[in-house]
Amino acid sequence: MSTEQNLLTIRGVETYYGKIVALRGVDVDVKKGEIVTLIGANGAGKSTLMMTICGSPRARTGEIVFDGQDISRTPTHEIIRMGIAQSPEGRRIFPRMSVMENLQMGAQLVDDKHFDDDLKRVFDLFPRLKERANQRGGTLSGGEQQMLAIARALMSRPKLLLLDEPSLGLAPLIVKQIFEIIKELNSNEGLTVFLVEQNAFHALKLAHRGYVMVNGNITMSGTGAELLKRDEVRAAYLEGGAH
Ligand SMILES: Nc1ncnc2c1ncn2[C@@H]1O[C@H](COP(=O)(O)OP(=O)(O)OP(=O)(O)O)[C@@H](O)[C@H]1O
Questions:
Q1: What is the pLDDT of residue 22?
Q2: How far is the CA of 62 from the centre of ligand 1 (A)?
Q3: Model confidence pLDDT, tens digit, residues 3-41
Q4: How far apart are CA 171 and CA 168, in angstroms?
Q5: CA-to-CA separations, 102 to 37, 93, 107, in angstroms, rounded
Q6: Which of residues 109 and 132 earns the better pLDDT score?
Q7: Domains of the chain by start residue, with CATH
Q8: Which of 14, 15, 17, when mutated, tests ligand 1's pocket best, judged by the most ligand atoms within 8 Å of its CB?
Q9: ipTM of the complex in this document
């Protein structure tokens, strides 16, 4: 595949935790304006890939090119400044800080002249957060915390949004709302999204393209529609699943 239109190009990335190998030579392409989904079972290495893109843990070998620059040795704060934001698994918001303070934390590495505009944009996307601006993060519902985690990531004005399991532990209706917002961000604002999900059905329906990860390797790739039709994908990630 040509890498010309890529916002993110990952080639031959290997990541270790001590002696344990978590990624075994991963190749992934994310083009500008795409939603790309990575699916895989528990422990396949999906979160490790997200974290490796952000520089912690570091890839031991391989190349990660973002917006034309190799970021495989770039410090995490610099990666965020360059335009990658992550909403991590388990929606790690700051529970004792208010919604507003959480959003301020998201904006701290970027120029604050855009703060008011960015705040308006996330409050338009997530009106419930506006209503709860002074409430502590930890008192929000699971769905609201997920919205806050995404909103916080958006406050750094990313070109690429990394979302790790945004549907984890949420009721189907909330999952639907969150996936609709991701779609809206992509189609209205052209935001590029790389999404990790165990909820393969919804994630592949939403995505332009997808990858399947098994035991630290990419084993399949294709358009979301192609992957949804594959027997191996259906058997491993869809049959009997909640969709
Ligand atoms: N901090 C760590 N130290 C040692 N091993 C780890 C660490 N984090 C993850 N691993 C191991 O690396 C492998 C990949 O884990 P990872 O969390 O990336 O998988 P995942 O696909 O995101 O799974 P899940 O959906 O459960 O989060 C697993 O074998 C896991 O046990």
A1: 97
A2: 19
A3: 778 999 999 999 999 999 999 999 999 999 999 999 998
A4: 9
A5: 26, 7, 9
A6: 132
A7: 1-83+160-243 (3.40.50.300), 92-157 (no CATH)
A8: 17
A9: 0.93
pLDDT (tens digit per residue) in 205-242: 999 999 999 999 999 999 999 999 998 888 887 765 44
Phi, psi of 192 (to 5 degrees): -85, 135
Backbone φ and ψ for 41, nearest 5 degrees, come out as -75, 175
Rounded alpha-carbon distances, angstroms, from residue 30 to 70, 89, 211? 15, 20, 11
Burial, 96: exposed, middle or buried (Cβ in 10 Å; 0-12, 13-18, 19+)?
A: exposed
Rg of the chain, C-alpha, whole Å: 17
> Is pLDDT of 195 > 90?
yes
Please give the full DSSP string across 100-137, using - where no structure is assigned.
HHHHHHHHTTS-GGGHHHHHHHHHHH-HHHHHTTTSBG
DSSP state of 58: P
Ligand 1 atom nearest residue 196's Cα: 22
